[in-house]
Amino acid sequence: AKEAGRARMTCYETAMDADREERNALELDLRNAIEKEELTLAYQPLVDAKTHEITGVEALVRWSRPGYGPISPEAFIPVAETSGLIEALGLLVLRKACEAAQQWPDLRIAVNVSPGQFRNPAFADYVRHVLNHAEIEAERITLEITEGYIIQNPERTRQSIERLKALGVKVALDDFGSGFSSIGYLRQFGFDRIKIDRSLTMDVLTDSRAREMLQATVALARSLDIPVTAEGIETEEQGIALQLFGCDELQGYFFGKPLPEAEISKRLKAQTAR
Ligand code: C2E
Ligand code: CA
Ligand code: CA
Ligand code: CA
Predict the structure, then answer these.
(1) What ipTM goes with this model?
(2) Is 232 exposed, middle or buried (0-12, 13-18, 19+ CB in 10 A)?
(3) Is 151 helix (H, G, I), strand (E, B) or coil?
(4) Which of the four pLDDT bands, split at 50, 70 and 90, describes residue 40?
(5) Where are the beta strands (DSSP E) in the chain?
(6) I need a surface site. Which of 17, 106, 126, 225 has the fewest CB within 10 A?
(7) Which of 40, 41, 60, 91 should be mutated for ligand 1, with most atoms under 8 A from CB?
């Protein structure tokens, strides 16, 4: 009977059905992985633009899906967002990042926050709870948020940021320049840092428009005393250019890919031995 049913469906229906099934399967696997804490974190170095010393790390979630292997956060974070799993995922990430941070007392730890977490009025409370539990100084944590949510809910964003800053954590505007970035947001929301998206930095040496936009952005941020990180630095030349334009911090494959905890510790040891 199943075979006959299948034969009756049009290709289109079959494809829709397969999509939905695949999404449900992914959601189920993800729910399981969160429950069993099978998600791990990789840490990408954030380096001082002048000395290239590691001054911080960005925590990036990793998941090896049973039967599939590693799957990109860009594929499963949206599923977590629409299925109500994002809060549990976000909590797990924050908790693991704070635990790892204990062994790196001199580093700043950046953690990505999804709109779905940020939207929750209790978000600041759970951040406070995790920080207390991990006994980590709030100042060492930077929460990275993208501008998509800000545009939808400017007023609530302002309130959430205020509550977070009252805890002592820092808040960074992520992926700046990737979408409808409004420079006006910079001052309005009290961001402690902005991160310039790879889509701008990658063209800095080849495209004069990208370069001009970048220079104008960095100049404005600096006039507001907001430090700037340039993301996606893949060559030495890009790094030099962005440092000259006024970025105080750099991040990208040239300085280090996202690495397991132990690799970061090794690099820190080599750094202090120098
Ligand atoms: P993002 O926050 O902008 O993170 C930077 C992404 O760019 C990371 O991809 C990183 O591996 C990649 N990257 C860094 N340097 C370079 C470079 O030089 N060249 C290139 N081509 N890529 C570079 P990843 O780890 O795949 O994460 C993708 C996105 O998924 C993140 O973008 C972030 O939006 C989201 N994400 C990752 N982890 C988390 C998490 O724990 N929570 C939430 N809510 N989102 C996360
Ligand atoms: Ca980020
Ligand atoms: Ca980013
Ligand atoms: Ca991004």
Answers:
(1) 0.98
(2) buried
(3) helix
(4) very high
(5) 40-48, 54-65, 69-71, 108-112, 141-146, 170-176, 193-196, 228-230, 249-250
(6) 225
(7) 60
